[in-house]
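job 3f2a | input accepted
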Amino acid sequence: MGVRRRRWRLPALAGACALAVAALAIRAPDRSVAELSTRWAPSPSRFRPVDGLQAHFRDEGRAADSVPVLLLHGTSASLHTWEGWSAALRGSRRVISVDLPGFGLTGPDSASDYRMTRYTRFVVALLDSLHIARADIAGNSLGGEIAWEVAAAYPTRVRKLVLVDPAGFPLASTSVPIGFRMARTPSLSWIFTRILPRNVVESSVKNVYGDPSRVTPDLVTRYYELTLREGNRAALPARFAQMAPGADTARLAAITAPTLLLWGGRDQLIPPATAARFQRLLPNAQLVIYPELGHVPHEEDAERTVADVMAFLNGG
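job 3f2a | predicted structure (316 res):
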């Protein structure tokens, strides 16, 4: 009997050791801002205090532009998602992009406050700190929701809106990235903050692209490394827990700013059918759908999408 037990214990011990080694191999500790900044915050990136955070932002283009373009990214993204648009716009416009609280190099809110009121306050505080009275605001997904919430709450601060697959209504997703599913599941979110296989990030990014083959290793590296910024992984479950989809959508009807809605026809996270709900409430909106693009059309095909944006902002 003793021999049998020893024989049973040896494979079990070997299996436990293998699991421990595997866990260590995919363990992903947080990374400091200093460690990440060399690669992800070169000039023209800057940091400045904004509403209690050290905000990572870029201020590019024509300094004399009295109504700059402000770009707001979506959940788990960063200001880098707008680099294609920024490159096209900065020749004629002042262009500001920023890492929102809980994401990128700006990182988590000290009070773990990720309610929409906190995000709108942050955006207005950023504009105030840069002495900007009025802006054209573009946002994707979460950033789109923040953009229209700012326009509703502070109408004099927004001249035009560009909403790229914006959030705001209850989700009717046909597919959700695995990283989001992990962060939304209490039993898995603890693991998410300590172990993050790169292939989870790769799968999540491919999930939101209309054509997953366009997701490059460099793109995955960017999303992966910025997710590891100190506190970002803990912030994501808190952000999901504080979401209140549909709570403020009645306010869309009060927005008077001319609005351009851009939507990826292959968006599985916020399907293009949602565009009709925005159009019904927004009194002054036009819609462009890109049949082959997904949830982040501005990143998937910057050249094509920014051409429509420039025509809209220039009055076309």
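job 3f2a | The first strand starts at residue 45 and ends at 50.
job 3f2a | closed
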